[in-house]
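Ticket closed. Logging final result for cysteine desulfurase.
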Amino acid sequence: MKEIYGASFGNPSSIHSFGRQARKIMDEARRTVAASIGAKEKEIIFTSGGTEADNMALIGSAMANKDKGNHIIITAMEHHAVLRSAQFLESIGFDVTYLPVQENGQVSVEDLQAALTDKTILVSIMYVNNETGMIQPIVEIGELLKDHQAYFHTDAVQAYGLMEMDVTALGVDMLSVSSHKINGPKGIGFLYAQEDVRLKPIGYGGEQERKRRPGTENVAAIAGFQKAVQLAMKNRDKNQQKYSNFKRLFLNILQNEHVHFAINGDPSNMVASIVNLSFPGANVETLLTNFDLSGIAASSGSACTAGSIEPSHVLTAMYGSDDERGKNSIRFSFGSFNTEENIKEAAEKIADIVNRLTSKEGDIK
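Final structure:
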């Protein structure tokens, strides 16, 4: 990225040599990104990240296809980029169904089938939940929607780079990705939109990205994203195994230190990089403060709602609004730069903090 900032400063929409040089860099990145999900180059729209990609998928497709119907289906556990887009569409007359979430953290394909109507124009269900790490039945949903008019969008931000992904095999029409989730630069991502998908731009200006997303492209960030994609694809299997080992080590230490906890969701349908734990008798805010003071970075939900101590909307969808798990749960995640030493140190500190804060007065460890 540093090299491109200095040497490839041209506008990729310009026809002079500097512009053509920038365009070449961007075209190569688009090919890399498309190949990573089995898509065509022209089906990749570079965005400012996952949020814009989600907004474009929901609002752009809804506005372009309202002649076919006004019904949209999402889940109650979606990222706020999808939830808020759906709420906006509701405010202008669209009908939105929010599918419930089972206690295991998955949506039911049967519930989706029952919610479908001949007015449904879009179904948006995330691939992997960002708070629990639960993998959703995307292939089964794609099969269900194969002969329906509704477009199928999945927010794959948390799955991309960890799971093998082919848009045709998944049966999706649109798919959102963010660069920073695979250690790429922040502020860049993409929306895959199958070439027949009708999308109305949600911004106005130039005719970049095949008239779907106006604005001069961030060439350096796109090149950085390309490199991150190449590394993620190369190291995917190795990282999967590493994260699985990290999670096993982390949980074993907590158990050995007699920490009282429960895993939110079904561990058999969960990505290796995330674990969401409920600590009975604990207070989320107090835990997070103590973790931070000990050098541990964790969260009670999505980083996009940091600073909020409201109960997790994901856990509320799973367990109900009165369940304590919505208020005493913490999300831990593992990254490619973590080491076993990091995991051991964090787990030991967490065990000490949790046991100290949840022990009865007079029996403080």
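Residues 219-256 form the longest helix (38 residues). No further action required.
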